[in-house]
């Protein structure tokens, strides 16, 4: 039998150990999470900052961001398991709960704390007044969706009944609303950024009011997942929330120009000046949450908005489908 020197045997054993440890580290470093975001918008700047600044990577996460246009489609993707985490309005989790889901959807981290839409007028008058909307054609959002409910909430606050005082159009798919307005449909429309700024640059009208400012603080866009995924992946969800909070603090402490530069790869076709002005609008009105915690006052405001829209069957207490554990641990 051929003799193998002890030092060669030692090297082989050492190599085996190194390969084993490397494989373990590789598995840890490749923990992957797929996010389904309801739309691609500057409204979600902290999400893109978390990816671009390496905050997800610092937590050992590989995050794949997929855009699933519309709250209904995003929730369907989450329930079907094609995405792990959804970034969508908190109202969608309430709808799932109201349907008696066996595996409810749990909100665990807030991204935005105001509505992200702006009232855009095709033929804006010099001094805007909400009364000008009466008898106009309003290109609305999907019934039961957060933009539409928050919009109706604000209109009612200003004495406008959307069902009687407007010609309300709601048969246009979420992804096609901007193009429908561009083609001539409607006198007014709700637009997210950067679309509102793009239309202003193109001379299609102007922003005359902010639904975010008018409707107050609420958990407008939240990261959520199924209870089963949460139970099985607590460590991953905690790491995800930690990374998000790092991004929130970064966004809060940097200028609109700096934020726009970081998120530019996610908006390659957008003029950098438009990107900056869009971020600035959201920062100025306090849209971006500075921590991932959903507080009770915000939650109750959401319930009021849903109730006014006739979409709330019964009051859903905060702790029923909100798990604050991860957000609180991320913000000691």
From TrEMBL:
It is found in: Periplasm. The keyword Signal applies. The gene is ytlA. The keyword Signal applies. Belongs to the bacterial solute-binding protein SsuA/TauA family. PANTHER family: ALIPHATIC SULFONATES-BINDING PROTEIN-RELATED, TAURINE-BINDING PERIPLASMIC PROTEIN. Keywords: Signal. It holds the Pfam family NMT1_2. This is Binding protein YtlA. It comes from Paenibacillus silvae.
